[in-house]
Amino acid sequence: GGTVRFEDVRFSYDAGREILKGISFEVPAGRTVAIVGPSGAGKSTLSRLLFRFYDVSGGRITIDGQDLREVSQESLRAAIGMVPQDTVLFNDTIAYNIRYGRPAASEAEVEEAARLARIDGFIRATPKGFKTEVGERGLKLSGGEKQRVAIARTLLKAPPILVLDEATSALDSHTEKEIQDALDRVSEGRTTLVIAHRLSTVVSADEILVLADGKVAERGCHAELLAKG
Ligand code: ADP
Ligand code: ADP
């Protein structure tokens, strides 16, 4: 399972401006759909609606045919995993941070997730940047490493539906490639919605929607969109 459908979805944060103006698409179970578009187009709003941080103002969102408004918060949290742009880490070991999404996971499962995300070299370390009674301590993680901790956490949780918010633009190309590889592993076989900033990072998506001003301006696979210019 895990088919996600947006049906003529409309949304305003307040009575004023409409942010999403009738968005329709489907992510069939196990497939990947990418949303690209300029800043302010409504990409993050769309993912917030999927998590039901807000309810749609018009139209509907369904998972396997069930209206999101009829799905409990618990099932929604179990069904959807998020790899956010910026990961907040707890003042504990990397292993603890990976385990956070699934406290009952075995040590071996945590290690396997870390290996797949390529952070197995330092899972016993604690991230730096926390003020404790003994002062600052721990390991300084780069943005890319932090994101791979988030990827490992999601791998361990193994939700049927994934939302990937890509923030690879500020990273060097080697780190970007490592993250891309890890994201590819995490999304394999799952229903995946990728929020991306550039077409170049979503080459393998089954469908790409170009969002502009709250509407779908273009849609197609990577080659089709390139051909359109
Ligand atoms: P994107 O992710 O494509 O950059 P967003 O979904 O973040 O776009 O934002 C779309 C529009 O909604 C923007 O004009 C933004 O200013 C507005 N917006 C985002 N969050 C809020 C909010 N909490 N309240 C009011 N307006 C918001
Ligand atoms: P986890 O780390 O396993 O995702 P959290 O308690 O952090 O657990 O989050 C629970 C759920 O909240 C996630 O599975 C996801 O559905 C949602 N969520 C978490 N972080 C974000 C985020 N940055 N943006 C949107 N939704 C989020």
Helices and strands in order, then pairings?
Blueprint: E1 4-11, E2 20-27, E3 32-36, H1 43-50, E4 58-63, E5 66-67, H2 73-79, E6 80-83, H3 94-99, H4 107-116, H5 143-157, E7 161-165, H6 173-187, E8 191-195, E9 207-212, E10 215-220, H7 222-228
Parallel strand pairs: 3-8, 3-9, 6-7, 7-8
Antiparallel strand pairs: 1-2, 1-4, 4-5, 9-10
Helix pairs in contact: 4-5, 5-6
Bound molecules: adenosine-5'-diphosphate (2 copies).
Organism: Xanthobacter flavus
Family: Belongs to the ABC transporter superfamily.
Subcellular location: Cell membrane
Description:
The protein has seven helices and ten strands. The protein has helices spanning 43-50, 73-79, 94-99, 107-116, 143-157, 173-187, 222-228; strands spanning 4-11, 20-27, 32-36, 58-63, 66-67, 80-83, 161-165, 191-195, 207-212, 215-220. The strands form two sheets. Strands 6-7-8-3-9-10 form a six-stranded mixed beta sheet. Helix 4 (107-116) packs across helix 5. The chain is globular, with a radius of gyration of 18 Å. The structure holds adenosine-5'-diphosphate (2 copies). Residues 13, 19, 37, 39-45 line the site of one adenosine-5'-diphosphate (ADP). Residues 4-229 form the ABC transporter domain.
For this entry, give a set of tags.
single chain; 229 residues; alpha/beta; four-stranded antiparallel beta sheet; 10 strands; globular; ABC transporter ATP-binding protein/permease; binds adenosine-5'-diphosphate
Largest sheet: 6 strands, mixed
Report low-confidence residues grouped into runs of 5 or more: 130-136
Helical content stands at 25-40%
Radius of gyration: 18 Å
Number of strands: 10
**SS content category:** alpha/beta
Unique ligands: adenosine-5'-diphosphate
The share of residues in extended strands comes to 15-25%
Strand order of the largest sheet: 6-7-8-3-9-10
If helices are DSSP runs of H or I spanning 4 or more residues, what is the number of helices? 7
Head-to-tail CA distance between termini? 35 Å
SSE topology string:
EEEHEEHEHHHEHEEEH
Q: Assign an overall shape.
A: globular
Chain-averaged pLDDT: 86
